[in-house]
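Researcher: Here's a chain I'd like modeled. Treat it as a single chain, no partners, no ligands.
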Amino acid sequence: MARTPKVPDGTASGDTQHGGAPEATRLPPREAIVEALMRLAAEQPWNDIEIADIAREAGVTLGEFRDAYPSKGAVLGGFARMIDKQVLEGASDDLDDEPTRERLFDVLMRRLDAMDPYKPALRRITFALRGDPLSLAALNQVALNSQRFMLASAGISTEGPLGRVKLQGVVIAFARVMEVWLEDDDPALARTMAALDREIRNGERFMERAEDVRRLTAPFRALAQSLAEGGRRRRRRERRDDDRNEDGGDPAAAI
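Model: Modeled as a single isolated chain. Structure tokens:
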């Protein structure tokens, strides 16, 4: 698989406006802010980066920053959407006839390829947020949204109860692969590809077991649903009976 790292836009040298990206190659504010944050994160600790630093690096005002993103963390969501778009726009139908495993492998490797120019920044960010449960929970939601589109690109459904399990499973699996990828400096990414292949195969086995459990428990789930619906109907009848009894027992109810 070809791996030609994409150079982030707006990083060339030259005259700048507000100390940010060159005026000749200025990006829209949202993109400029993402690129600025990733440049800063590649050079300094995450917790040292202030929103004013990002705005200055991006060549935008704080007002423009506020219009684009509510926080520094939200910019990471913008980065994820930027990567989503690159992967989705680079999709082709060449693998439509291939097994699901191959399609998913291709999509997730293309995601890593798109992230490659930002690897130094992602190393620092991952290390900084590793011990922050609130940030990790927020990033998990960002990852769920991204992987929903990655799976759709691979032709994999995420609807229904098993779809949600599948989606969270891919998020966890990709996070594990990223841990390998962040330390894999081999241009061929042999370790990363082996880790991704292993995670996909493990996921397939898990989903097969989950589907078996779902089929085996289908009669019990149908019975439970029937009992629950019967209970709801009985409670509605009881409430109607109570209302009629109350109306008939108290003359003032007619007033």
